[in-house]
Amino acid sequence: MALIDANNFYAACEQSFDPSLLGRPVVVLSNNDGCIVARNPEARALGICMGTPYFRIRQKLERLKVVVRSSNYALYGDMSQRLMRSLESHCEELEIYSIDEAFVRLSRPCDFNLRDWACRLRSLVYRNLGLPIAVGFGANKSQAKLANYLAKVVPANAGIFNFLTLSDREKRELLENVAVEELWGVGPKLARWCRSRGVCTARQFRDMSSGQLLSKYGVVGLRLQSELRGVVCWPIAKTAAPKKETCVSRSFGQPITSLEDLQQAIATYVVRAGEKLRRQRQLAGALTVFIRTSAFSSPFYSESATVQFHMPSNDTGVLLTASIPLVKKIFRPCCRFTKAGVLMHHLQGAEHLQQSLLLESTLEDQKRRERLMTAIDRLNGRYGRGTIGWAVCGTESDSTWSMRRDQLSRAFTTCLDDVPIVMA
DNA sequence: TCTGGGGTCCTAGGACCC
DNA sequence: TCTGGGGTCCTAGGACCC
User: Fold this and answer.
1) Which CATH number does A1-165 carry?
2) Exposed e or buried b for every residue in A336-366, given b needs 16+ CB within 10 A?
3) Which nucleotide is nearest to A9 if distance is taken from CA to C1'?
4) Residues carrying CATH 3.30.1490.100, chain A
5) What are A284's strand-pairing partners?
6) pTM confidence score
7) Which bases along strand B come within 7 Å of a protein CB atom?
8) How many C-beta atoms lie closer than 10 Å to residue A42's C-beta?
9) Which CATH architecture has domain A167-241?
10) Nearest nt to A186, CA vs C1'?
């Protein structure tokens, strides 16, 4: 099994389409230009940390001449698809784990040279997409994750590391040099608990008492430990499990104080959520709206309201009708709202819809609405989002709340007007 | 002034059943 | 004095991931 991921994925995507950034420090910001979420090695070398709020570090970045980019998910999402397609054609099974990484399974003879295979794959991906990748081999997901980490942090490994070929003694020595918090699945809480018991390295974690781990961290901790010992606890999932919930939420570019603006923002998120549901071929059984003020200033206010549907739906009209009264219900005047969102839950496959005895709409009505939604999705897909909009969302130009993206690069791969032009 | 977004899994505890 | 046993389902909250 192998874990393959792109190094500094967002920053690498930016550099791939703007060669003038090569060799320069680059950081990418989260939505709303909030925090640093990606850094290339040059930026890392300057001591810029992940998660730092942008406003705190802005002047330093300017002084150090660091290139700053807003998140461009149209670009990263499309580059991700290209990367996954490329990986898929070189292995037997692929599980997409996140936007920039995948677990893969290879069936090769025992004497097959995995390193050569990984080398060729790295060159190919770099040539076609301009993205550097790292490849880690292990007996299971946790080991592959660890191998991938070592492929990246040890320069001599040059982006490839194989845990499978190590002897027991070599494994032991290697794990002795990995801090416990670097293990996949060990977060800050568990790491603190481990360290307080003198378990500071991956080797000590692997060899610690399973009973202690079970009592503190349940079966999840135990599985992680078993995988480090070589057992497979999390097999590769070839097909993605259907989602159980889907959320659309954003921080606002400026705080919202009026009910009208808040309703407009929520309506915009509901429309996005409807699109997601239809793309996933799912229906929502319930919808929650949540709003909140800044967690960094008082008084803090956070509230949510939920509605259950008589009949699960992914019809934007139904979702909007249900959500707007909820906003009114939880809105408080004099609050400066900084974030809101909608959560779709009790999701079920669109193909198994239980009809309701209580609803007046006929099956024919529902079919007509489905065709309407499909038509809207197609038009927006073909001519750009917002080609067919919903009046309740307002327009982009009159929204004061849409998120800040002051340093957005272009949609190089998904918008014809933004395709780079190379002068011969 | 300004601090991301979108998920999953697990467990404990409450409500309820017979 | 003593107040059952065994189960399901749901939700909230915690922890983790990228």
Assistant:
1) 3.30.70.270
2) ebbbbbbbbbebeebeeeeeeeeeeeeeeeb
3) C18
4) 246-393
5) A313
6) 0.91
7) 1-11
8) 20
9) Orthogonal Bundle (1.10)
10) C16
d(CA A60, CA A39): 15
| Distance CA A357 to C1' C17 in A | 42
Strand nucleotide closest to residue A276 (CA to C1'): B6
State the CATH class of domain A246-393: alpha beta
The CA–C1' separation of A190 and B15, in angstroms, is: 32
Could you tell me how far CA A367 lies from the centroid of its own chain?
A: 33
Q: Which residues make up the CATH 1.10.150.20 domain(s) of chain A?
A: 167-241
pLDDT of residue A373: 96
Q: How far apart are CA A85 and CA A180, in angstroms?
A: 34
Our measurement of CA A311 to C1' B15, in angstroms, reads 26
The per-residue pLDDT for A310 is 81
| Structure tokens that stand for A315 in this block | 């019809």
> How many Å from the CA of A417 to C1' of B8?
38
Span A253-279, average pLDDT:
93
